[in-house]
Structures are given as C-alpha cells and as structure tokens.
Amino acid sequence: xxxxKIMADLEKKNPGEVEYLQAVHEVLESLEDTVSENPxxxxxxxIERLIDPDRVLTFKVSWVDDNNKVHVNRGFRVQFNNAIGPxxxxxRFHPSVNLSILKFLGFEQIxxxxxxxxxxxxxxxxxxxxxxxxxDNEIMRxxxxxxxxxxxxxxxxxDIPAGDIGVGGREIGFLYGMYKKLAREHVGTLTGKGVNxxxxxxxxxxxxxxxxxxxxxxxxxxxxxFEGKVVGLxxxxxxxxxxxxxVTELGGKVVTISGPDGxxxxxxxLDDEKxxxxxxxxxxNQDIVKPYSYEFTNAKFVEGKHPWEVKMDIAIPCxxxxxxxxxxxxxxxxxxxxxxxxxxxxPCTPEAIDVxxxxxxLYGPGKAANAGGVAVSGLEMTQNSMKLGWSREExxxxxxxxxxxxHTACVENGTEEDxxxxxxxxxxxxxxxxxxxxxxxxxxx
Length: 445
Ligand code: NDP
What we know:
This protein is an alpha/beta fold.
C-alpha cells in the first residue's frame, strides 16, 4: 500500500481536517502488512473506498431561545460505511464540532462496530450547538429543529444515531419524540432511549462498564485485577460515571475526575455517595468538578490541568480527543502506570501512544475498549426488533462476552513475536478484515 501517496491525496481533498487525517493515518499504518498479504483488497480499491465517507449531510438548524432570540447552528450526519450493517454512531453536540471531527469519529466507528461482532456499519453526526447553560425547553426546541432535517435520512434499517458528548438520555428523548411524530412510527431508529419506551437496561452505563471490562481482560493477561489499584479517570460524563461505578465495584480506587477547567484529586477515592452527588449535579446541568471539592474537603481542585500528573496504576481517559499527550504519557509511565484503557475516542495523541508502546504498557485503543456503548446499542436494536426487553443481568452478561471477544480478537491479530500485544494493530486488523471482505463480496458500489 502506498501510504504516503494515499495520505497526500486525502489531504488534498480534505485540507486542514486534522483529526480525520490523524485517524486515517493511524489505521492505515497498522494495516500495511495485512493489505500487502491480501492483494485482492488493493485490486478492488478497498482502501480508497473505505477512507471516504459514503455521504455527508450538512444542514442549517434555526431555533428560538427563551428570550425569543433566533440562533442558527450547523447540523451534520456522516454516513461512512454500511458494508456489514446499517450506519450506526452517535450524535455530538458541542461548540467544537466540525466536519473533521465527525469524519474522524465516523471512520473509527466502522472498525469499532465491526469488532462488536454485531451487524453495524459506521456513521456519526452532531452539531456545533452548545447545550451548556441552556434550559430544557431550549434543548427541546434545538433537538426538534435538528430532527426536522435529519429524520428523512435515518431509519431502523438505514441509519441509527445515538448519544455522544452533549447528547444523553434527555436529548435522545427530544430527538426521538420529533422523529416519531414525523415518521409516524415507533421503531428502534435511535438508541439510548428511555427504558419505558424501547430503551435497553445498562445502555447509559454500557460504555463505562465496557471500558472497565476491557481493562480487566488486559490485566488478566498479566495475572492482575482491579483490586487495590489506583485509577485515574478524566471527564465525568456518560462514559466516565459508568467506569467510576464499575471500577469501584471491582475493588479499584478512582482518585481523579475532570472537566474542561481542571481536575479533582480525591485521595480517598470515589464511592457510591460521591458518584450520586456528581450525578445529581450533572442532571441539573451544573458544573460538577469544583463543587465536588467544596462538598468533600479532602479532595482538591487543580485548575487548568489534566489528571495525568497524578500517580496511578491504571488510566482511563473518558473526556475527549487528544486530551493525553506525549509529556502526559511520559509522566504516567514514570509514575508506574501499567494499563491505559481509552473510554473516549482518540484521547491519546499518536506520540503518547508511541510512549506506551515503547514501554510495553497495556494500552487498549478506544475503538476496542469503548465499544461497549455501541454494542449495547446493538442489543437495544435487537430488543426493539423482537419487541422484547432483556433483564439487566442478561444485557450485562452479553456486554461482558462482547468485550471479552473483542479482547480475544485484538490478541489474535495483534500479538508480536516477543508476546507483546499490540492492541491498536489487533483492533484495526480484526475490524478491517470483516468490513473489507464484505466490500469485496458486494462489488464496487
Ligand atoms: P459527555 O459530554 O457526557 O462527557 C464528557 C466529559 O468530559 C464531561 O465531563 C466534560 O465536562 C468533560 N470534558 C469535555 N471536554 C473536556 C476537555 N477538553 N478537558 C477535560 N474534560 C472535558 O460525553 P461522553 O461521556 O458521551 O463522551 C466522552 C468521550 O467518550 C467522547 O470522546 C465520546 O466520543 C466517547 N464515547 C462516548 C460513548 C457514549 O456512549 N456516550 C461511546 C463511545 C465513546 P463538561 O460536561 O463540564 O463539559
């Protein structure tokens, strides 16, 4: 594969789309051996067809705030690849959202969804709308305006959006309400729905549980567990709270959480009472990081920094892309970190990943480690199709099995001669082979 030429062509077509180009480069670099061993992929132009989204929709979203002021945001949906199943991927509402970020996320989603073993293609969407500080009614009006455009493009067998940054249960409710009205059908077109109207038990905590199960599998290869380990998390959103709960349940001590303005270090560790306190603040749309340090006075707030300077055994970044850089990785390694499991998508920069690899750290990339969310979304779709709801235990057992299967696929495809498991390579190769072979079977479309 002519990696540099493919990247140069892609850059020419997508100038300045830094995150998208970064994600494509990371994947293609690890596929070089696989592609050269399988000339049929190059002959069928699989790589060129895989790195370009099937289609991209951008649209205007006009809405009125509580003071009757009109706002205009931009909405997006990127349908990347549907070779193995309908497009599937979350919606992100955050002021930083642009096409580069959504294309990187949609591209990653192809491999992640393939790894889940479920029939799900890759997509992503969102808006540069900022839900922070908005009233429930403003959020509702924005979601309704967004769905007025999106609904024609999605459907239970076509494209199934879910949550991501800034989109949780409340937003999915408002989006689904409008979808249902326009489409005049009650089907599984969105996931992350409320349990009373088609949602799956465990979906809210699935990504956080999954990233913890994946770390548990990695630790097992060294004969280790979470028991007694000091764990650092970043963020405290959809992903981080599930991780905090599961790590604590497995005997680990979560000593950090963070927000955009800094992090909390709590040497006593989170417990159920503290997690409930944080969730209450979060539900009422308030800042959570600083108030935590006022309520629990042993904890300290460190302004303007990431938590990676704290000594920890296991790091689980759960906030956003490129939040852990080379210096952070070096500090973590110096402080004895043994395992990094990515809850967020692409939270570690390529240079940080190099540091983990050189030091033979157990490093689980997001597309494998955080696939639990979309996996349970897939299980939600199955339950919707069957018009049945599974128990909490059943969904959790399936989630654990899926995370264990993803880990096995990484080990099978990523083990190097000295026995070290290159998880990013294993995840990319396993995810890619299934999609590439499906594309071959289906001809040039
Ligand atoms: P949320 O919006 O629920 O949470 C994000 C958290 O990170 C919030 O606590 C937020 O703080 C904090 N945060 C945001 N930006 C920064 C920053 N620059 N520095 C430090 N903290 C920051 O999002 P999710 O939990 O849904 O998503 C987090 C990550 O996980 C994303 O990368 C997403 O793509 C990925 N992911 C999510 C899945 C899901 O099921 N939701 C599935 C798989 C991956 P504040 O609220 O104060 O802004």
